[in-house]
Write a structure and sequence with these properties.
The chain is an alpha/beta fold. 43% of the residues lie in helices and 16% in strands. It has three domains: 3-145, Rossmann fold; 147-311, no CATH class; 312-390, Rna Polymerase Sigma Factor, Chain: A (Orthogonal Bundle). The chain is built from 17 helices and eleven strands. The strands form two sheets. A seven-stranded parallel beta sheet has the order 4-3-2-1-5-6-7, with helices on both faces. α3 (59-71) links the parallel β3 (53-56) and β4. α14 runs antiparallel to α15 (340-350).
């Protein structure tokens, strides 16, 4: 049976990995691809994958390319609000591969239109999990995380009772600056900071990996997705990125899930694509098994891990403020407006400043509340940002 699929954010790294996973698989039919403004890439994706519906968010790019798409009889729409015009009945799958908080609204719009939503968008889960979970329940849509860590946890605890889980461990590579002197990286250039040792990722998430903010986000995600208390989650440094999650169960049993650092693996498995393969035991395999090399991360090496103690147990605006601060600061760094160390220093300062504390007592009730909190946070940061030399 043919399975229909929507890919939100198909031109990003996760979207490209999804298309690679689907290539040459005749069991899937792509009903819709979306992008913000990368029309050149999505045009090629549409031609190669025979996709007839495209959504773009950027009006200038829409006007520039609409005739080109029309000549190929590809329907080009402006804005995610058009998704209901395209999808008339529930698809089998929808993958949200959109980067940043911009992925939340498309997630909420897509849930009623699919039987299974696969999410790699951290910000959607962190800032709007309560909104997402309510929609999942209302429309009877299944949720599958496809970040390698959360997919691994999802697989490891399948058919296990929650009360038997003693501890969940997220693994972190340590990024490109593991064991590097803080003085040497204070003014490091983005071209160096975005070179992840194991994964091919977008610039923003690569910076988050280097500061360990990515792992703070994954900690919050795990807490929300699996409904866990903070003391049930830990982080370990694992430079090879081979083990993606470790679960300690009551009774002394420990499970872990391993796979190569390729996003096609969790995506393919989440979609039920399992190509037959007889694996060989090689010297390369054995070296990986014998050199797992775990260590406990230190706050002195990764200052943003201090944020873990500040995370509230209950849903609040804290997560929206944290995500917005980080997005804004990383964007400024990538555009040459602040140096590397100013990302960490500003983030730690603002997330603890008096101004935001009053908002931590509230929680978003809808997407409008989320957008309002983002605007308030951006405005305050832009007016009060500091520049640090060391």
């Amino acid at each position: 049976m043919i399975k229909d699929i929507i890919i939100l954010g198909s031109t990003g790294s996760i979207g490209q990995s999804t298309l690679k996973s689907l290539s040459k698989d005749k069991n899937f039919r792509i009903k819709l691809l979306t992008t913000n403004k990368n029309l050149k890439s999505i045009y090629n994706q549409a031609i190669v994958n025979k996709v007839k519906n495209i959504i773009v968010e950027n009006e200038d790019e829409f006007n520039k390319y609409k005739l080109k798409f029309k000549k190929k009889k590809i329907n080009l729409y402006l804005g995610i609000n058009n998704i209901n015009k395209i999808i008339k009945k529930k698809t089998t799958y929808c993958i949200n591969a959109i980067s940043g908080i911009d992925g939340l609204e498309p997630t909420l719009k897509a849930i009623p239109l699919t039987k299974n939503i696969l999410i790699a968008n951290k910000e959607s889960i962190i800032c709007g999990w309560e909104l997402i979970s309510k929609k999942l329940l209302k429309y009877k849509t299944n949720f599958i995380p496809i970040d390698s860590e959360h997919f691994s946890i999802w697989k490891l605890i399948a058919n296990e009772k929650k009360e038997t889980i003693d501890k969940i461990v997220l693994t972190a590579s340590g990024g490109p600056f593991l064991n590097k002197s803080k003085k040497k990286i204070a003014n490091i250039k983005p071209s160096v900071a975005t070179k992840h040792p194991n994964w091919k990722m977008g610039k923003k998430i690569s910076i988050d990996s280097s500061t360990m903010m990515n792992k703070v986000f994954e900690f919050i995600e795990a807490k929300k997705i699996f409904n866990l208390k903070k003391n049930k989650i830990s982080i370990l440094i694992h430079p090879s990125s081979y083990i993606h999650a470790i679960i300690y169960f009551n009774g002394g049993i420990i499970k872990f899930l391993a796979h190569d650092a390729k996003m096609t693996i969790p995506i393919s498995n989440a979609l039920g694509i399992k190509k037959k393969k007889i694996s060989k035991i090689t010297i390369r395999n054995i070296k990986k098994y014998n050199n797992l090399n775990f260590s406990i991360p230190k706050n002195n090496d990764f200052p943003l891990l201090k944020i873990l103690k500040l995370i509230p147990e209950n849903e609040s605006n804290f997560e929206i403020i944290l995500t917005t601060l980080n997005d804004n600061l990383v964007n400024k760094y990538l555009n040459g407006k602040i140096n590397y160390i100013s990302i960490q220093k500003n983030l730690l300062y603002f997330i603890q400043c008096t101004y935001f504390k009053k908002f931590f007592k509230l929680k978003p009730l809808n997407i409008t509340d989320v957008k309002s909190m983002i605007k308030i946070t951006d405005n305050y940061l832009d007016k009060n940002i500091k520049f640090y030399d060391k």
